[in-house]
Structures are given as C-alpha cells and as structure tokens.
Amino acid sequence: MKIFVTGCCGYIGSHTCVELLTNGYNVVGLDNFSNSKKEVLDKIREISGKSIKFYEGDMLDSSILYKIFSENEIDCVIDFAAYKAVGESVSKPIEYYTNNVSSVLTLLTAMKKNNCKRLVFSSSATVYGDPDTIPITEDSKTGGTTNPYGTSKLFVEEILKDLYKSDNTWDICILRYFNPIGAHSSGLIGEEPNGIPANLMPYISKVACGKLECLSIFGNDYDTPDGTGVRDYIHVVDLAKGHIKAVEKLDREKNGLYIYNLGTGKGYSVLDMVNAFEKANGIKINYKIVGRREGDIAVCYSDPNKAKEELGFIAEKTLEDMVRDAWNYENHN
Ligand code: WQD
User: Which pTM value belongs to this model?
Assistant: First the structure.
C-alpha cells in the first residue's frame, strides 16, 4: 500500500514514516519545512533503510497535491501538516486557521478529485476544552477550546463529520493525541520546536543540557496530588504505531468515520515528569514555581479503551522510556 504523509518531516510525521517504512508500506511525503528540517529525510532513511518519495511544497498549493496524486497511486492519506503551538496560535489566529483548516479543505478537494477517500487525521485532546469528566472518552463533550490551535482541530473534525454525512463512501479516522513526548531510541529524530520550547518535555531537555537556565513550573495550586498540572504523556513511537493501526482499520472497514483517543490512560504531574527525568538520566533539573499559564487546565488524561478494543492499540512504552529517549535525542543533537 502507498501512504501519502503530509508534514512527513515533522515530529510525529517523521516517527510515523519510520513505522510505515519498517512495516512494508510505500510512503510519499510532503513538507514545506515551516517547522521541520530537510535532513530528517536522511535520518528516516538511516533508521528504516528505505526512502520516502518526497515532494517539497505547501498543502495550500493545490498544484503540488494534484502532481502527487497524478504521479502516485495513493491508497491512504495521513494528514499531520499543521501549526501546533498553542500560545502562538493566540497571537496568530489568521495564520493558524489558514494553515490548519483551509489546507485541509484543499487536501480533501484534491483527494475527492482523485477518488482517494481514505484519511487518517491528526487531531488533539485540546478539542475537549476543559473536560467535565476524567478520564476522557471519545464521547466526552468537545468544544470550549481556549485557543485557535485547538479550535482549528475542532473545526476540521466537524468538516470531516459533515463530509462523511454527505458521502458515506469516505473512510476517515480521527486520532486525538494527548501529550506526545520522547523520541526514537536511535536519537536521530525527535522533537525540535523552533525557538524557545512551549511544551514541558523539550523545555526540560534544554534545561538539562544547559541551553536554558531554569524550568518555570506554571502553578502548583491546582486541585491535583502535588498541585501541578496533570497530563497523559504518550511516547511518540507508540503514537506512530497507533497510526499504523488506524491505516489497518480503514483498510479493513473500507468506509466509515472513526474517532479514537491516543493516550496511555495514566496522568502524570509536572513534578512527576521532573522527578522521572532526573531519576532516569541522573541529572538535576533547576526549576521554580511561577503563576499559572493562561489557558492551562488542571487535569487531562484519556480513557484509551476504545482504541484498544477497536484498533488493537495499546501504548507500551513507560514514563522512563519517554524521559530517557527525550534526553537521548537532546544528547545526539
Ligand atoms: C504540559 C504541562 C503545563 C511548560 C499542548 C497542546 C496539545 C499538544 C501538547 C499539540 C502543563 C506545564 C509546560 C513549561 C510547565 N500539542 N508546563 N512549564 O499544554 O498539556 O498541551 O501541547 O498537539 O494539543 O494543548 O502541553 O507540554 O505545554 O504542558 O509547567 O515550561 O506542563 O502547565 O501542566 P499541554 P505542555
């Protein structure tokens, strides 16, 4: 099978390409390098021993999409290409809605014209807003998103539901990621955000190697065991494997619209993450407690059972694997 991966050089895209190639899939990739680097293509080849058929370009440019579909018999599309910095999205809503929503409409139009109606879409737990109930199931209320990033993901989910209602020959799987962290054990690919990291784990890694001085922990007055925010961290390699399961599901079903949480079902606090990183890597992390970050919620973790029952997906890597592999990547780069 030939899989078209948008955002193939990004954090989750690159790890998914490795899993696809090592599982015998042919991969066609598209990236505009707005938040990734071209050398990731070499790293993917070094890890998997195989190459992606790569096209450089932007998903907003329908001509590159038509070129890809005319030159390749695509069986399924996995769409990762999106901006994903929550804080940045608040100050750049037009860029976020253009890049994260309009580009998907361009993609869906090209897919329909080329009679390719099988799509795995990269969504996010942010679509749940501030959840009423924990753990979060796929039936939990969505909406109440607190930033354009999360709202853009919610908009695309609604577009996909309307598309399926209009034509039930589409075959769509929406994957809601919780908090992806870590890196491939080789240390060759990992999370490389532009500028100062907004997310916890890359920030901890930069403090550990001395590139940043001190971690600011955003609030210790939440209603959690130690007062710091609790999240469902999932190893990026487990997340990548979840995409293989989604591709297999769509190939079995031939049509339908499916929604799955991809998480571990376990919640860890910020201090749990600092302590786990220090213990696994033998490094002290300087931190200070500061005020809460605007838009943060106290607790967010998944009920992963639907993905287990319907995809046969279970996250296998431990918290120690996650923090060790994150540090290993930082050390390699
Ligand atoms: C985790 C915890 C912070 C940084 C976001 C998006 C989500 C996904 C992951 C894209 C929280 C605390 C963080 C720091 C801290 N992105 N923290 N100091 O906000 O749960 O999720 O990123 O797919 O969609 O919403 O992740 O890593 O920013 O924060 O104390 O310097 O760490 O308050 O409790 P978040 P995060």
Answer: 0.97
